[in-house]
Amino acid sequence: MSKKSHSLIRPPKLHPGHKVGIVAPAGPVNREQLEKGLDVISEMGFEPVLGNFVYERSRYLAGTDSQRAKDVMDMVRNREIKAVFCARGGYGANRILDHLDAKVIRNNAKIFVGSSDITVLLHYLYLKAGVPGFHGPMIAGSFGRAPMKSSRAQFKNILMGKPTLLRCRKARIFSRGSATGKITGGCLTLLCRSLGTPWEIQTRNRILFIEDVNEPLYKLDGMLWQLMAAGKFKGVRGIVFGEMVNCRPQKSGEGKLENILADLFPDSKIPILSHCPIGHGKEIWTLPMETQATLDSSKKTLELKNGGVK
Q1: What is the mean pLDDT of residues 52-62?
Q2: How far is 135 from 127, CA to CA, in rounded Å?
Q3: Of the listed 142, 151, 211, 274, which one is catalytic?
Q4: Catalytic one of 151, 275, 280, 297
Q5: Is 280 considered catalytic here?
Q6: What's the mean pLDDT when you consider all of the chain?
Q7: Which of 4, 98, 235, 282 has the least CB density, counted as fewest CB within 10 Å?
């Protein structure tokens, strides 16, 4: 299905008591962390249902490609399941995309939440199935590892269709301004990995968010310049950088993220914020992909026009 051949279908919002499917499309899952995360989901009022292969392991993957894909598609087809939450990232979501059925996903549009390695799956969803996913906390990888009190509230509110104004007082202003556009983005490593594929990130007229974890500064520099060379900053209306957790210089004198941004955007005419809670930190915003939003870098806010659900 061509990305130009269909309109986007917003999935139905969640209600208390709804069953939600838990899948592991990428790396193997830590049982203790998953159980903690499942308790968080239950406390929100939802009923988690585990995929059949969540605890499987095949090398650095949560089971074989066909097992991981089957769990995703089983949750999509199950009419009792109203949303699909990813257990964790890691690596491997790219390997299951050819095993998914975009037409079935479109005909059973549901909330789908994940981040990190799940970035490629989120782009597959809207480009191939016309169903916008949500870049947000994962059950074991996020809720199972940190309290995330404010993230819990925002996660629940947005998936239940409540208006959202996100503000990060600790954010740093790189360039001031205000802009409106659809939200897109994800983990920088995976955004680069999407280039040249059928699920390549589309950035024109978008508010682009970018995050990553455990990468030295020179690798961030290289990946951001790769996006620049691929034309992915052309027509972008605004950029939000995450906290870039543990992305540090390897030696003194190598500078910081702001130095990289100054080289990339020497005379920025668009609003750019950095150090926002996106991706791998102790708090993580839930962001509906391809949903209209307004970024005001001076106020350090991101206003979501709707929660990405109907």
Answers
A1: 97
A2: 15
A3: 211
A4: 280
A5: yes
A6: 95
A7: 4
Number of neighbours of residue 160 by Cβ within 10 angstroms: 17
Question: In which residue are the tokens 């996660």 written?
Answer: 155
Mean pLDDT of 269-287: 96
**DSSP state at residue 116:** G
Closest CA to 181 of 230, 106, 239, 119: 239
Which residue range is the domain that position 297 belongs to?
A: 164-304
Domain boundary among 90, 124, 159: 159
Number of domains in the chain: 2
Give per-residue pLDDT as tens, 89-118: 999 999 999 999 999 999 999 999 999 999
Does 154 lie in the same domain as 168? no
Strands 238-242 and 272-276: parallel
Q: pLDDT-based confidence at 150, cuts 50/70/90? A: very high
In this structure, are 38 and 60 located in the same domain? yes
Cα dihedral across residues 37, 43, 46, 52: positive or negative: positive
Which one, of 12, 4, 14, lies nearest residue 160 by Cα? 14
Residue 2: pLDDT over 70: no
Among all chains, which residue has been given the structure tokens 């059928």?
198
Q: Of 18, 115, 116, 243, which residue is the catalytic one?
A: 116
What is the residue whose two structure tokens read 């199935």? 129
Alpha-carbon distance of 83 to 80, in angstroms, equals 9
**The residue count for the chain:** 310
The enclosing H or E element of 21 equals strand 19-23
* Helices 217-229 + 257-264 axis angle, to 10: 20
In this predicted structure, the answer to whether residue 25 has a pLDDT above a threshold of 60 is yes
Q: Is position 12 within any domain?
A: no
Residue for token digits 């986007």?
A: 8
